[in-house]
Structures are given as C-alpha cells and as structure tokens.
Amino acid sequence: MAQKSRKPSLTHRVNSFPAAWSWFVDELIPTYVKRTYSPRESWKDKPFTTEDARFFFKGISELSELFTEERPTKLPEYFAHPKFRSAYLLYFLPLQAAKFLSVFQLHPEATQAALKHAAKTGTLHLADLGAGPGTASIAFLLWLLDQPLPDGRKELPTIELHWFDTNRAIMDDGAALIQALSDQFPKLRGKVQGHMHGEPWWKATPRLPRETSLIFFGNVLNEAALPQQASWSAILERAQGAGTLYIEPALKRSSQLLSQLRDELLEAGAIENSARSIWGPCLHAERCPLAAGRDWCHFSVPVEIPGRWFTSFSKGLGSERQWVKFSYLWLSSPEARAPVPSPRLRRVVSDPIQKDRNADVVLICEPERPGRIRVPSSRHVHRGDLITED
Ligand SMILES: C[S@@+](CC[C@H](N)C(=O)[O-])C[C@H]1O[C@@H](n2cnc3c(N)ncnc32)[C@H](O)[C@@H]1O
Asked: Which of 25, 108, 168, 347 has the fewest CB atoms found within 10 Å of its own CB?
C-alpha cells in the first residue's frame, strides 16, 4: 500500500487520578484485605505492613501467571480461593480501575452522557457484568467525586449498581469497599445502593432497569464462551445514556475477540451501522482490520499508577508500570450518539513498525485492512494517537 505523509494532530495521553485514589488504594483496600483475609485473628486490626505485603504477594504472583497470554481458554474459578480474592483486591483492582479511568478520560463526552441521562431519569443506574469486586463501578465513583455535575446541579442523583458475577464472594468484597467509600465522602453518602446477582452476565437483561445509564463489561468476555447473538440485542437495548463499555486485556486473543464481537454486532444490526454508534476507539463502522491476523487492536497509555503498595507489588512482579495496556470498545446509545469523526482523522494502531532518519511508519485503522503512513519521528507517535491528513 502507498505510504502517505500526514501530520499528527492529536495525542492520546492520560495521567490524572481522582483525588480519592491514594486513600482508596493505600488505606481502604489494604485495611479491608488485612481485616478480612489475614489467617490470624490477632493480626486483623493492625495496620498493613511490609510483612503483610510479602504474605499477600504470593497470591498476586500466582494470579499474574494465570492471567498471561498462555492462560487457558477457560480459566479455573480462581475467585473460589481467598488467596486470589485478596490478591485481586490489592493489585488487580487498582490496575484495572486505572484502565477504566484512562478510558473515561479519553471519552469525556461519553461519561457526561451517563450523567445527563441520570439527571433526566433521576437515578444513575450502572450495570457491571462480570463485576468481580465492582472495579468499573468503583472507578466510576472515584471519577465522579471530582466531576462538575451537568446543568450546575449541586447533588449527585441516587446511584444504583447492578452487579452480575458467577462468584458472590468477590462481589461481597466489592460491596464492602463501596460502602466504605460512600461513607467516607459526603457527596456519595447515602446515595449508593447495590444489587448483587450471583449469576452469569448473559442472564442479566430481565434484572436490568430499562434505563441503564452505562453498562460495563470489565475483563470478562475472555473468560467464557460468548452466548448467542439474541442476548446481545436485549442487553444493548438496556444501555441508554452512555451505552456499553467493554475493556479486555491487551492480549491478542481477548483483543481479537472484542473486534470480532464488534463486527458481529454491526453485521447483525444489533448496533446501527454508523461511526456514531461507537465512542471509541473506532472512527468507522466498517469491518475491523485487526479482528484476525498478526496484529490486534490494543492500546498502551502512559500512566504511573499512584499507590505505595501497588508500586511495591509491581516491583515484585518485575514490571514497574509506566503504562496501562488494554483493548476496549465503547458503544454509544441511540439517545446520545458519538460525534461524527472528521473524515481525515485516523487512529494509529501500532507503535512505529519501521523507522528511517526523519520518519516513522505506523499502522492506522482503515476498514478491512490496516493502512500504513509515515509520520515525522519528532512527533513520537504511538499506538492510540489520532492523526489527521495535511
Ligand atoms: C478478571 S475478573 C474481572 C473483574 C472486574 N470486572 C474487573 O475488570 O476487574 C473476571 C470476572 O468475571 C467473572 N465471570 C467469569 N465468567 C462469568 C460469567 N459467565 N458471568 C458472570 N461473571 C463471570 C469472574 O468470576 C470474575 O469475577
């Protein structure tokens, strides 16, 4: 394919964390984990120490092994083990929440659509399917604490969380964290109600409100075979307001699964065939160029995740994190469509694949097949950036 020269116009950088983040990850989670998961009664009410970090790190390290590219197609029921629930809360919850926060910051219009919808209906209904400890909901509440409300409103609406997960114990952990979070901040106090369902996510539809402001699927699609098309339409019909946000690991299999799901939903008419049906990352509604083959659509956002214990666990895993990596798809709802992207805008879907003295070649998202373009090296263009033609 001919290589065109284009000037980068917009970058893809996110690095702010909610004010409540440090309290949440350095105080609330470790205190809760120690109280709930310490093997000895006498340890439970003492502060979380380096020795505790060493004790709980074993589960973090084992769970991290399980979550790699070589993971089995069907994962074992890891949350049946207290060792893995405590590991997830201490390390993976902050890690996955940081990914949700990154995506909220990449799509501020979408998050505002959820708030506007809630202002209209009087209740912010958030559905979290494959909720685990409610990571996505927690990230949204932390983010919400810092947001101005639409139309100059002073108070948040009532917030109802609808969680579905095949493991109840991890939802109970999340519910305890949400309770402590909402007790801590006057803005949330008395506002948050949880509805936890110990069921597979594809049984959610009859229990979801007709007017759900946002539906989350966090790192769950890759854990089980996907159900029939019919249930997708039913679920997506409930997603009013900001629509449906899927985040999956940046691994090839899970990212391509998400791209394939996107193509199937468009082909089956479960979502309207228009770029306005998608907040991101796609700028078109034609076939995804990376649903199969060598490359896959995923993003690396430069972020330093704050947190004393998080940093120490990352070091222990040999990966001091300066990036979060994920794949995602955010579908809009019929009542709040995504803006029409400029026809000259393109999403970069690779880091430089070739370099010469003055220019880098990167892949860009085009229908069916990725395109290639040359960009000046001085612009340091990365996967995920948006660029426009001169
Ligand atoms: C990796 S965790 C993700 C948790 C949370 N959404 C997050 O992003 O941190 C995957 C969760 O999906 C749940 N899960 C797996 N298969 C499921 C299914 N068919 N229905 C509902 N939950 C499921 C697991 O129990 C687990 O809590």
From this structure: 108
Chain CA centroid to CA 218, Å: 6
How far from 309 is each of 22, 39, 373, CA to CA, in Å?
Answer: 10, 20, 42
Task: Answer yes or no: is the C-beta of 164 below 6 A from any ligand 1 atom.
Answer: yes
Query: How far, in Å, from the CA of 80 to the mean position of ligand 1?
Result: 12
| Nearest atom within ligand 1 for CA of residue 67 | 1
The tens digit of pLDDT for each residue in 325-384 reads 999 999 999 999 999 999 999 999 999 999 888 999 999 999 999 999 999 999 888 899
Residue nearest (by alpha carbon) to ligand 1 atom 20:
200
Token pair listed for 351: 């880091």
Residue 74 DSSP SS3: coil
How much distance in Å is there from the Cα of 368 to the middle of ligand 1?
31
Distance in angstroms (rounded) separating the CA atoms of residues 169 and 81: 10
Closest ligand 1 atom to the C-alpha of 78? Answer: 25
Chain-centre distance of CA 103, in angstroms?
A: 7
Question: Which domains does the chain show, CATH number per domain?
Answer: 18-338 (3.40.50.150)
Q: φ and ψ at 333, to 5 degrees? A: -110, 160
Handedness of CA 87, 43, 32, 179 (dihedral sign): positive
Condensed to tens digits (0 to 9), the pLDDT of residues 307-324 reads: 999 999 999 999 877 889
Query: Phi and psi at residue 75, in whole multiples of 5°?
Result: -75, 150
Residue 53 alpha carbon to ligand 1 centre in Å: 25
pLDDT tens column, 143-167: 999 988 777 888 999 999 999 999 9
Which residue's alpha carbon is at the smallest distance from atom 1 of ligand 1? Answer: 219
